[in-house]
Amino acid sequence: MSKDNSTNVFQEVISHCKEYGFIFPSSEIYDGLGAVYDYGPYGVELKKNIQEYWWKSMVQLNESIVGLDAAIFMHPKTWKASGHVDAFMDPLIDNKDSKKRYRADVLIEDALAKMEDKIAKEAEKAQKKFGDAFDREKFLATNPNVLRVKEKLTTYESRFKKALEDNDLTEVKQIIIDLEIACELSGSKNWTDVRQFNLMFSTEVGSVAEEASTIYLRPETAQGIFVNFLQVQRTSRKKIPFGIAQVGKAFRNEIVARQFIFRTREFEQMEMQFFVRPGSEMEWYQHWKEQRMKWHRSLGFAEENLKFFDHLKLAHYANAAVDIQFNFPFGFKEIEGIHSRTDFDLKNHQELSGKKLQYFDPETNESYVPYVVETSVGLNRTFLAVMCNAYKNEKLEDGSERVVLSIPAFLSPIQIAVFPLVKKDGLPEKAQEIYDELKWDFRMFYEEKDSIGKRYRRQDALGTPYCITIDHDTLTDNMVTLRDRDTMQQERISIERLKEVVTQKVDWKKGLR
Ligand code: ATP
User: The pTM is what?
Assistant: First the structure.
């Protein structure tokens, strides 16, 4: 897909989300609040379904994982211990002419990604020229243009990695200058110095000013799990290795919130901390990498649209870290992080709180602070990936077009729409009867307005996998028409069999077995 085309697709997805009640800009009657969004009737269903699916696959299907719902507000010392007060920073840089603010690391990452694109394009061009005789590997290893870009890329990657590791902000700026990165608004290369910016939001608790104290909105849900680790372990009687899962809001004062719901200042995370014996963390890190990739595939994402990306710079708490990236219309970007967090968090909480956070291992007769492997996926980013993956503008055989959301049936906001063919002759009553019977098992929708064709199109655009139409014959033969969203095939089926047939089709377990 060309860049322009993918930009258009992304704009279409955003408009579609608004038009069909998935996502609205927040407080729009006051002209909105930048990068804040509300989820409409179908969006809230889809988001809830993704969350539930994650919960089922992590908690219900794993005997060794239990859940938790910790508060957003936590004791301020939590964030000192976790390192967020001192180290949760992003490097920012301003363009002096446009006054536009950027994340310095993202500017560089984007420039490096462009070099990778250039290499891929050279290969594509050559493929077209040489056809079947083309040997891609040989071309990439020998073509002088490719080798030049590759060398540049490697040099800048290692400079960037070192600058991040050394926290050398002067060098970060120098890389921006050397790469000749220009502001997208002003086109100028007139940059300020790079500065660090803490991403935590703070607020005050307490009604009387003198007694008020500063607390933070949590920037990640993980710390609620760490501080509760021993209580959860004791009360759930779990032995190591075991995990604690949690879903909840997190807040980050992102320098540049952008790309719709991809990066917002308020978002939801689905996190799981897996507590393991020290020394076994790499084994578990591998395990969770595989499991989580399998989960993303089960959302219907094609293999070529997912990839692992090893971190260039490890966060202050990690000894290994990888992202799972999804191919959004704006390129491959992180959707989930998998981190081996060592004993960093528990140890620091132990120190700062003065409370022991050790586990007595009955198998080795030892007490120790466990190591942690974390899986942390953004609910909103997963939502966006599901939407981008599902959105299709199809040309049909009869020359007409339709917009369809091929959302996996188990996640769709509505699973079955029930339509009486006409608004009379007892058809609405029969349709209502079927609706009332099926609503106990499925997410349902009822509509009698407009032509059947229009009603089908509307459900296609909402991602509803099945529509049931009740016609005059239904009253005598107890059969209805079941229409499939993706194939648009229609079959006659008896009312009695509806539940069984649809149950099979919306089964959430298939992708995980
Ligand atoms: P990024 O590099 O994109 O800022 P991160 O590496 O800081 O992300 P983590 O701290 O690993 O992100 O958080 C885990 C997950 O939480 C991310 O993979 C992403 O899905 C989600 N997430 C993080 N920040 C945001 C945000 N500002 N808006 C929406 N989702 C977010």
Answer: 0.87
Which atom of ligand 1 is nearest the CA belonging to 376? Answer: 14
By C-alpha distance, which of 390, 430, 388, 429 is closest to 407?
390
- Ligand 1 within 6 A of 219 CB? no
Count CB atoms within 10 A of the CB of residue 230.
15
Residue of 376, 380, 386 best suited for mutating to test ligand 1, as the one with most atoms within 8 Å of CB:
376
pLDDT range class, residue 115, cuts 50, 70, 90:
very high
Side chain identity at 37, as an amino acid letter? Answer: Y
Token pair, residue 400, equals: 């007409």
Q: Which atom of ligand 1 is nearest to the CA of 269?
A: 16
Question: Ligand 1: does its nearest atom lie under 6 Å from the Cβ of 465?
Answer: no
For residue 3, is pLDDT > 70? no
pLDDT tens profile 133-151: 888 889 999 999 999 999 9
Which residues does 26 contact at the CB level (< 8 Å), separation at least 6? 32, 33, 36, 37, 38
Query: CA 240 to CA 360: how far, in whole Å?
Result: 9
Written in H, E and C, the secondary structure of 38-94 is EECHHHHHHHHHHHHHHHHHHHHCCCCEEECCCCCECCCHHHHHCCHHHHCEEEEEE
Summarised one tens digit per residue, pLDDT across range 161-170 is 999 888 899 9
The angle formed by the CA atoms of residues 456, 458 and 462, to the nearest 5 degrees, is: 115
**pLDDT tens-place string over residues 6-58:** 678 999 999 999 999 999 999 999 998 888 999 999 999 999 999 999 999 99
* 287, amino acid identity: H
Ligand 1 touching residue 336 (CB < 6 A): yes
Amino acid at 485: R
Residues 366 and 373: their CA atoms lie apart, in Å, by 20
Pocket of ligand 1 contains residue 376 by CB under 6 Å:
yes
Lowest mean pLDDT of 93-107, 166-180, 249-263, 432-446, name the range.
249-263
Closest CA to 455 of 474, 479, 433, 483: 483
Both tokens of residue 508?
A: 């959430």
